[in-house]
Fold this protein.
Amino acid sequence: MKISLKSVFGVLMVILTITAILILIPAKEDNTKENNSEINYEKLNDIVFNVKAKEVTTGNLIQSISANGLIKAYRELDIVSNITNYIDKIFVSEGKFVNKDDLLIKFDDREYQIAISEAEVNLMNAKIEYGFYTKEVAQNIDANLADSVKVKLEKLEVMFKENKINKEEYLNTKEKLDLALLFSGAKRDEVLLNKSGMTNAINSSNRAKLNLSYTEIAAPFNGVVADFSLVPKQRITSGEKLFKLLDISRLKVDVGILENEINKVHIGNNAIVRLTALPDKIYYGKVIYINPMIDPEIKTCRVTVEITNSDINIKPGMFASVKIETDILKNRVIIPKEALLVRDKRDLVFVVQNNLAKWQYVNIGQQNDEYIEILNGVSPGDSVIVEGHFNLAHDSNIKSVNK
């Protein structure tokens, strides 16, 4: 097969055309990118920046110390049993609010009722014995001897209080004088009470009544029941913890303050408390206790803040951030902390004047988490930019978008 010269020439022309197109297309794209990257700096003055501004004011600058802690009940008491016995009745449950003196738990009291009956019988027998003894014993009382001994006892007490005799001399002399007073007949009734067994019977009766009182557990104060898991007929041993009673009418937060800051904190200082679990709410309280000791390991001092429980959603154990006010600097020129910028290691703000941002250096004083004291540079009534000012230059065009 013969290929004509004309056909070969045509193919070569097509190849050359395609190659030229492939070479020229990237060059055109690169040229476009380069042209697009050019910035017209002459039009920068036409840019208007949206900003937010706030007024420079005169007010109190409150300084504070921040710390963290856990919410606690104002009072927390472990309710324990004084006896070993079986639970007869339960009148409370987990989370129940109770008032002072409300009956919470009742134990089986049959054994203690029997003990009281036996004690009453013994007491009656002792009273009968005492009656017989009072009739049999002659009314012989040496009044002069009794009075003399009483005077000596009074002098002995005075000498001991004034440290004129030591404790050993005091006890030995008192024992002898008590014995002399006894034989004078002045303590006749005491002798008869002991001899008849009435004193012991009275003590036994009182002990039986006390043990019976332990079969009922009442609330020592208004509060809410926690950690409760008891059931009727459950056997409880003496000293066993039954549940907790929490007084949550008020709440406490214990926080650790560094040793170099504790001298700034005083009882009665106001405090602001925020809870991680309730981020949209603020609670107010006061410092009520300051531990007189510094923890030697972590070098902090425990400070207790009290807040009123105005919100049933607050629960002991919640994490709290506490800000304790330490000082109030009155009548200071202050600006929001967001307004301050630092350029070339100098403090400055942008002041709004006729829709222009004016670069203004300032000298600052004290500050807290929200405000900074201005010593000079701006005056009350000036408007300082607090948002949208990071890219501003002096005399930049601005538009306030405050709402």
The CA atoms of residues 96 and 224 lie 5 Å apart.
